[in-house]
Amino acid sequence: MSGRPLSLGETIAWGLAGLILFLGIWTTLSISGLVPRQFLPTPLGVITRFVQLLTTPFAGATLPQHLASSFQRYLSGMMLAALVGVPLGLLMGWFRLLDDILSPIFEGLRFIAPIAWVPFAALWFGTGIGGPVMIIFAGAFPPCLINAYRGARFVDPRLIEASQMLGTGHLRTILEVLLPASIPSIVAGLRVAAGLGWQSLVGAELIVAAAGVGFMMVQAQANVSTPTVMTGMIAIGIAGMLIDVLLRYGEALILRRRGLVV
Q: pTM for the full model?
């Protein structure tokens, strides 16, 4: 990239300029009538609806209650993906036979989009929590496993040789050598998994849920309430951004403690 690096103040100023330009174009299209107001409300109308939904129920709950329902499913799916994916990735990275057995199955399944599991989730779990959790798991599991596997495969061979010379068993080697050495890769995988899991959740709630932000948007679409739909989109974006910021902070903290960044 050419040119000098921008200062923090300049970066913020250009970011605000881009936001103002976007809102200006949006407002112009809405007010001019080029797009019917019913389908493209003004930014002020969306903000007003956003504030209303903080305290006024829609589709059986307020916006914070819908978000809480979404987060409950999200955390369940993410925890399941991490608890299964990370240990399995480490084991596959250590045991070549296990890698040979599971890799063909995993490679075949990981290219199936999480949303493709929706029909099975609906058949197996209905609109309960199990369906969305399954779909979140399908989206978050591959990055957890792949990054743990890569972390284990690229551990410094000298560490493994030293462990073997001391007569360390497989379990202790995995827990005391592979796991600590793979943490940066595992954390990076969790960050990717978190984003994919959140996107998968919203897709799941559009079809197999009876509460949550995605469900709220579907009900709003059925009632032709565009401001409510856009409120849901904004809430999804803000929540996803906060998740990424927290994970980025956690990743940087872990890397600093391990002396990998200054």
A: 0.81
